[in-house]
Amino acid sequence: MLSGKELILTTKPFAKEIRWKSWYYTFSSFFLLTASLLGTYFTPFIWTKVLCSIFSALMLARCFMIFHDYQHHSILRKSWLANFIFTAFGMYILTPASIWKRSHDHHHNNNSKLFSASIGSFPIMTKEKFMEAPDKDKKIYLAVRHPLTIVFAYFTMFLYGMCLQSFLSSPRRHWDSLAVLILHIGAAVFLAVYFGPLTWFLTLFLPLFIVHMLGAYLFYAQHNFPGVLFRSNIEWCYEHAAMESSSYMAMNPFMQWATANIGFHHIHHINSKIPFYRLPEAMAKIPELQRATVTRLTPSDIIKCLRLKLWDAGQKKMISLAEIKK
Q: How crowded is residue 246: how many other Cβ atoms within 10 Å of its Cβ?
């Protein structure tokens, strides 16, 4: 069985972009996004408008995953057109390039470390540290990991976290976060005033609300699931963080397409230079990549993931608040 550096090197052949595919998936996805957004305005029936709005959210998810690959330099490198498209899209979806790149790179380099800054990740406390923490710190920690924080990610993690908080923490470095916030509020006011509240709700608010909720949960569940392992900074290694602390989220074919294969998350963490459209190919041809823990978008799996709050070093597993006294 391959492991360590050997496993990572085995994935290198799949980290080669097929340029025409990158452009095809980019243009086709943005075309479908544009068409569905226009459908929320031009279709005559309210139920078709709502369906178009929901489909827009799924297309935002797909476009975001392609944007995510571009930020990892796995597709369309050195293309001025791609840079323009994805910079504009990052502003539209409330993920300014400066804070997204910095926080996400930190996440990849520190995922599953027990004692590391929770930049770009949900914080992890050990059972012992939580028991010793002041009540204020406990409440903040539990609030950040609360299901409602994920449901309302549009407000909590994107408008506030990605935009306002990043700007306030470093105005010079993240000036674009403030620009994105101002542009977003301006666009919302413009749509509501000139096209009506319903148009604002269906073309801007609802698609972003849904995609941010979905994205926040996917990000949470792919690193907070039954069987996940966390290690001290000394014991940490890149391969273990990918294979033991990142899940494979099995989805039906439509959701796999809509999320641009982000469910193959453990492979993405093994080698972030693999384009999203080659992740299934890598998993099919490398048996070792098929050993990841499987999670699903089922109600029971969602509940199991959301219940996990603390790392129990003695049992080497994540536990719920109800299990603290055991």
A: 23
